[in-house]
Specification:
51% of the residues lie in helices and 10% in strands. The protein is α/β, with parallel strands linked by helices and 210 residues long. It has a five-stranded parallel sheet with strand order 3-2-1-4-5, with helices on both faces. Helix 4 runs antiparallel to helix 5 and helix 8 packs across helix 9.
């Protein structure tokens, strides 16, 4: 059974800006299906100005290629009751709620998210069913960067440090004025994961490896 990767807009955009989005599946063993929100295309590539968020045509092209290969989230089964609970939680917008609820309905799924407000909202939900259905399924952006660093530390560090405005916290981890040592990078990313783990508990995936 293929792993279902539910990828939020923040992860799509930032990995595209870093130039590593097309390598996302390499972090996961075996076959995997990419699943994105139906709204991702008009949110990330708005018709009024497709470069509004992407800034360059190269980044827009990466996002477009990813979305062309992805399955719309609306085609997947969803736990409607859980979706309603998630939509009522502060910090969780409708898109993140849909990804969480849809992943909860799948046996072999992961949610890849960079939305810290949504993670905080999920951690504050205190819902036993949600905790069981999403156990080990949540993967935050920092964990993905850990995975990329383990595979190719030099390339990943260059990708992040060459695009310092994408995510200031990640830029600090990888080094501002000079490249940080690989062990320091991994420890810094682990620290961010540990902070979120305090609120998410077992919902947060322990990977990499995932």
């Amino acid at each position: 059974m293929a792993l279902k990767l539910f990828v939020d807009n923040d992860v799509i955009l930032k990995l595209a800006q870093y130039g590593i989005l097309e390598h996302l599946i390499s972090l996961f063993p075996g076959p995997a299906d990419l699943i994105a929100l139906d709204s991702a295309r008009y949110k990330l590539l708005p018709k009024r100005n497709r470069l509004e968020l992407c800034k360059t045509e190269e980044v827009a092209g990466r996002v477009e290629a990813f979305l062309d290969a992805a399955v719309p989230a609306s085609t997947e089964p969803v736990d409607v009751e859980l979706l309603e609970r998630l939509n009522g939680s502060p910090g969780i917008d409708t898109g993140e709620a849909l990804l969480f609820a849809t992943a909860a309905s799948a046996d072999n799924a992961r949610v890849l998210t960079g939305d810290k407000r949504a993670l905080a909202g999920l951690g504050g939900l205190q819902d036993a069913y949600c905790s069981q259905a999403l156990a080990g399924k949540i993967i935050m952006l920092e964990a993905l960067l850990q995975g990329f660093t383990q595979i190719d530390p030099g390339h990943t560090q260059h990708a992040v440090r060459s695009n310092p405005t994408v995510d200031k916290a990640l830029t600090n981890v990888f080094g501002v004025s000079a490249p940080a040592a690989p062990d320091s990078v991994l420890a810094g990313l682990e620290s961010y994961k540990g902070h979120v783990k305090k609120t998410l508990g077992d919902l947060l995936n322990d990977g990499p490896p995932f």
